[in-house]
């Protein structure tokens, strides 16, 4: 950022992520805010996925320093039992939004808005109209309550930990990055002099065979140049037996690949 200033540029915005989509990596929010402060850059925290986990005290440390940021977003539709789509945005200074986006044509004027006693969301977004997304989140919170929502998060994390332990116990696999929440990034590890290209091909084949069964679905990502499989726990109906069944299927398909069996 200092190099940008020295080059005549103006650092404007920096985004820290709590739970990246690819691997659930977590940026140090407080440290990012400290670095941005001398430059007066806007600091946003993208906690779309893992923000939900922070309703549990044991995960709140991932947001340490959040009191120094300018905005934070989280998406309850990702992990908090809420239907797509529902994203929450908190902004420290709403005038930074309304100053740029406020609109007040004659046909939108009304007594409630003119009184200043209501929050006019049209002045905080590009569009004028919006759906009542907050209602479904309110209903989830009223239906389940904090305790049961915490149980949902903790159950998913526990099942992901169980899956991770199974992966680590099988010497054909490796966990590629540390598991922070309910996502496990793993792969068939290179063996017997396999090249990285051959390892990627084996993992692609495993993913395709698994997904063709219709019994489990895995996605992938690339971390540090490595093709990696992603096993995510998050469904409200998922139980330990489903995770164990998926792991047994993974083991079976891996054995087939390594023994040269043709997939049907």
TrEMBL record:
GO terms for molecular function: carboxy-lyase activity; pyridoxal phosphate binding. InterPro entries: Aromatic_deC, PyrdxlP-dep_de-COase, PyrdxlP-dep_Trfase, PyrdxlP-dep_Trfase_major, PyrdxlP-dep_Trfase_small, Pyridoxal-P_BS. The keyword Lyase applies. It comes from the Eukaryota. Keywords: Decarboxylase, Lyase, Pyridoxal phosphate. GO terms for cellular component: cytoplasm. The modification N6-(pyridoxal phosphate)lysine is found at residue 78. Pfam families: Pyridoxal_deC (PF00282). Its cofactor is pyridoxal 5'-phosphate. Coiled coil: none annotated. GO terms for biological process: amino acid metabolic process; carboxylic acid metabolic process. Belongs to the group II decarboxylase family. This is Aromatic-L-amino-acid decarboxylase. It comes from Panicum hallii var. hallii.
